[in-house]
Amino acid sequence: MSTILSTQTRNMLARSAFKQCSSKYTLQLVANRLYSNASEKTLKETFAEIIPAKAEEIKAFKKQYGKTVIDEVRLEQAYGGMRGIKGIVWEGSVLDPEEGIRFRGRTIPDIQKQLPKAPGGDEPLPEALFWLLLTGEVPTESQVKALSADLASRSKLPDHVTNLLDNFPKELHPMAQFSAAVTSLETESKFAKAYAEGVTKTEYWKYTFEDSLDLLGKLPVIASKIYRNVFKNGKINQIDANADYGKNFANLLGYENNEFVELMRLYLTIHSDHEGGNVSAHTTHLVGSALSSPFLSFSAGLNGLAGPLHGRANQEVLEWLFKLREEVKGDYSKETIEKYLWDTLNSGRVVPGYGHAVLRKTDPRYIAQREFALKHFPDYELFKLVSTIYQVAPKVLTEHGKTKNPWPNVDSHSGVLLQYYGMTEASFYTVLFGVARAFGVLPQLIIDRAVGAPIERPKSFSTEKYKELIQNITSKN
Ligand code: CMX
Q1: Domains and CATH numbers, the chain
Q2: 16 has a pLDDT exceeding 80
Q3: 86-127 pLDDT, tens per residue?
Q4: Catalytic residue (choose from 173, 274, 285, 310)
Q5: Does the annotation count 343 as an active-site position?
Q6: Which of 74, 124, 349, 476 maximizes the CB count within 10 A of its CB?
């Protein structure tokens, strides 16, 4: 049916289905039918088709090379945040210290070129990236359109979650509200219900998939409710059944400017995934390994993202920039900025937005955002300030001599883009990062369930035990 309908008719039917459908399940079916090309597979069908071969490949690989040593661990790594130890499997992306992130082998410029875009848009659609991360395949435009409609059809929040959000004190940090609301979605978990009913292991991924899509569909509404409750008049716009995810999210937040919509598409895409060892990804994966639902697993990841050394750095950057601006009173010379950087370092604080546990060059996510600013507002005062800091900070941090990476990371730039379009509330910024992170960590959760990944349980020792171990090792040498 879908192939013979015009886009206009399809959109009209979708709108009317959206208004009339009482059942969430029917709505998802309508969304999938109207937008997908009859000959093309849905995301779930695509994944179902590729996963048996992937599971077999992993099984054979483990059988043949399972005992091969792939790393050695030094004592300093046990005390140093396990930095660099290989021990997690993460299919969606790999981070190279010099080059930055690759999503299924593709750099950020690659995905900007290769992923489907909205009509008239230049930026990739985050739901297309989700498809790529889950399956390793680039979806067609109509497949993404069907996925956008499917996600929109899952956006309704249960009343208890709306009530919870409406009753939080405004002083509760937006990230705490966000994680609590996601936790409270547990009532909706199809995985938890199926598990309680004793569904077989081979079926786990199907319920995890459904929960993950439900969660993705609801996140923009949760995030927008927090934004509007804390900073605006509490009301949020309606989801548009025909719009893509980024457009819907921007509109729910109350921003209809097309450039802001484009920014949201880019923002959600580049903040999604950064391999598996970062705090939010690893936490989601770890909690998920105990077979907690996607809602519980992801809310645990959000609590990690809320830390100032991780996702909250985007808020810290803005606060730091504003203090700088206040202090230097319009003097944005390199000398003044250098002095401010030294003052920050000499007071024992970190320079937010600089440094990284893995990267050793400028973060390509920073570059992508810088290019967005150069294209849309090269003369914006705050952008110019960020650019001058970029010229000065690496030299200062190198002279300071502590950080292994003096270059800017993703958080150094994102806030300035949001400021330009009028989203000035810095304490909300990490919530945007959180919505984006779901696109990266949920595919791995689904894959983990599909390949039967075990519960994670690395070994810990006390210092006494490590001393014993070292004594045993050194006495043998
Ligand atoms: N300013 C000042 N000192 C810094 C620094 C910075 N931006 N980055 C690292 N250092 C210091 C560390 O605090 C550490 O000092 P101590 O030896 O006194 O503990 C030393 O340099 C070595 O750290 P490192 O090995 O280079 O970095 P880590 O892997 O330990 O930490 C990170 C990485 C990101 C937490 C750190 O660079 C940092 O705190 N940066 C500022 C916060 C930030 O921008 N975080 C966002 C990262 C991206 C994200 O996850 O969103």
Answers
A1: 52-60+74-309+428-476 (1.10.580.10), 313-421 (1.10.230.10)
A2: no
A3: 999 999 999 999 999 999 999 999 999 999 999 999 999 999
A4: 310
A5: no
A6: 124
- 310 pocket-lining for ligand 1 (C-beta < 6 Å): yes
The secondary structure element, H or E, covering residue 94 is strand 93-96
Atom 15 of ligand 1, residue of closest alpha carbon: 402
Query: How many angstroms separate the CA atoms of 199 and 410, rounded?
Result: 41
Determine which one of 271, 274, 285, 356 is catalytic: 356
List C-alpha distances in Å: 356 to 176, 227, 393: 24, 29, 14
The answer to whether the pTM exceeds 0.90 is: yes
Structure tokens at 380: 């914006």
Cα of 343 from ligand 1 centre, angstroms = 17
CA distances for 261 relative to 77, 148, 237, 240, 246, angstroms: 42, 15, 15, 14, 6
* Catalytic annotation present for 356: yes
**Amino acid found at 275:** E
Residue with CA nearest ligand 1 atom 17: 402
Is residue 77 very low, low, confident or very high in pLDDT (cuts 50, 70, 90)?
Answer: very high
Query: What is the pLDDT confidence band of residue 17, given thresholds at 50, 70 and 90?
Result: low
Catalytic one of 211, 273, 363, 411: 411
> Annotated catalytic, 285?
no
H or E stretch covering 19: helix 7-20
